[in-house]
Amino acid sequence: MKAMILAAGLGNRMRPLTDHTPKPLLCAGNKPLIEYHLENLQRAGIHEVIINLAYLGEKIRMHLGDGKRWNLHIHYSQEPEPLETGGAILRALDLLGKDTFLLINGDVWCDIEFNDVVTTPLNTTQSGHLLLVPNPAFHPHGDFALDDSGLLLEDAQKNHLHRFTFAGISLLKPALVSDYPNKREKFPLVETFRHAIAQQQLRGQVHYGYWSDVGTPERLQQLNNFLNS
């Protein structure tokens, strides 16, 4: 199995920290955020990794190189500008191939082992399996709900279900993007999620461990305090 790490964002909410450093290279616990993902992938037995690059992408390429330090083989998908999450996957499809892959947001930190995600089988009717977490204070209304069978639903209120927040970690089939009827050069991945949910093709699981969307300097400091505690 291959993995893709999304690392092309501008990191505007993290400024001034990201004026000269791409967000995946910001440190928490004395280690760049993206290195936690690489170590987790190595433990999960995944060796082929695609990383998309745009803003300050050469700094990421120079820091990580070919991935041999982590017993990985890193491929880079260069973007002329950030193409958003859906556009990034569309551009990288040739590198990803046809098989199910693990997708990770470069700016999240989670204590789940990726092996616990990639061992989840996708049946023939599934387009993906999303990791969800309890809603953090900055996103109280969540993103999606789960029914008792693990099927993702968007209209939680209609079904009297609690919504959870997407953790930025998912197991996806490339066809989720390649077969999406409204795909274009630049678009958000959540569009494909909603399309697949309408066809009952997405499932998920809730993780109750430590998770952080490292989107602000304050949350980076909170994560740093947690890792150093």
The tally of strands reads 13
SSE class: alpha/beta
Rounded average pLDDT? 93
String of helices and strands: EEEHEHEHHEEHEEEHEHHEEH
Distance, first to last CA = 34 Å
- SS strand fraction: 25-35%
Overall outline? globular
Task: Provide a concise account of the structure shown.
The chain has 229 residues and is an alpha/beta fold. The chain has nine helices and 13 strands. Strands 1, 4, 5, 6, 8, 9, 10, 11 and 12 form a nine-stranded mixed β-sheet that branches. A two-stranded antiparallel sheet has the order 2-3.
Explain what you see.
With 229 residues, this protein is α/β, with parallel strands linked by helices. The protein contains nine helices and 13 strands. The strands form three sheets. Strands 1, 4, 5, 6, 8, 9, 10, 11 and 12 form a nine-stranded mixed beta sheet that branches. The longest helix has 12 residues, at 217-228.
Which characteristics define this entry?
single chain; alpha/beta; 9-stranded mixed sheet; two-stranded antiparallel sheet; 9 helices; 25% strand
In terms of topology, how is this protein built?
Layout lengths: L1 E5 L20 E2 L2 E2 H11 L4 E6 L3 H8 L8 E6 L5 H8 L1 H4 L4 E5 L2 E3 L4 H4 L9 E6 L10 E3 L5 E2 L2 H4 L3 E10 L2 H4 L11 H9 L3 E5 L4 E3 L3 H12 L1
Parallel strand pairs: 1-4, 1-6, 4-5, 8-12
Antiparallel strand pairs: 2-3, 6-11, 7-13, 8-11, 9-10, 9-11
